[in-house]
Design brief:
Helix content is 38%, strand content 8%. By secondary structure, the chain is α/β, with parallel strands linked by helices. It is globular. The mean pLDDT is 90.
């Protein structure tokens, strides 16, 4: 018999592993859940800006950059700005670069693609007050310990594109089974 161990902070939803188990095709899986050592109520804050343009409008990305500025100032840099597309990532970076110059903000501004992921993360950690603008490769598997990262700003929730063939097949199957694919899968 073989054994596999999967570990992550995001495999379960409310201590329930059933979605992950089903997606992985696992049967009779033994699971374990440990509470987070973090006190999210005391250590975290969610900010959802009001009156943003429609996410599909041409003004949306500029609005994301604009509402990010006071957050970045309040955190004294130490931020990831994560975008769901490379186009938005480049636009946010350009807008932040311009705003930093106009407002005398001297936070190092890093952009995914300027160096390797590892080099960018090393530079981000070393600066201690940098702002990194990135996309898909920075959404998961990144660990920045200590004070170098205090804020994560995201432009949109990262849904897979509806024309993705794997997603499309899963949605079709769920629809055939009478399930709500958006609520149960995405």
């Amino acid at each position: 018999p073989r054994a596999w161990i999967f570990t992550s902070a995001t495999l379960a939803v409310k201590s329930d592993f059933s979605h992950y188990i089903a997606q992985m095709g696992l049967h009779a899986a033994e699971t374990g859940f440990w509470e987070s050592p973090f006190d999210y109520e005391a250590q975290a804050l969610l900010y959802a800006p009001q009156n943003m343009p429609d996410p599909n409008s041409s003004a949306y990305t500029a609005a994301v950059a604009a509402v990010s500025l006071p957050v970045i100032q309040a955190s004294e840099g130490r931020a990831f700005v994560l975008c769901t597309s490379l186009k938005a990532m480049r636009e946010v970076h350009a807008l932040l670069k311009e705003a930093f110059a106009e407002n005398g903000m001297e936070y190092p501004l890093l952009l995914q693609g300027e160096s390797t992921r590892t080099e960018l993360l090393d530079r981000f950690r070393a600066h201690g007050n940098a702002v990194l603008v990135g996309s898909q490769s920075f959404w998961e598997g990144v660990d920045v310990r200590g004070e170098a990262l205090s804020v994560v700003i995201i432009d949109k929730l990262p849904f897979a594109p509806p024309d993705d063939p794997v997603l499309s097949a899963r949605i079709d199957k769920m629809n055939e089974e009478g399930k709500n694919a958006f609520m149960e899968y995405q």
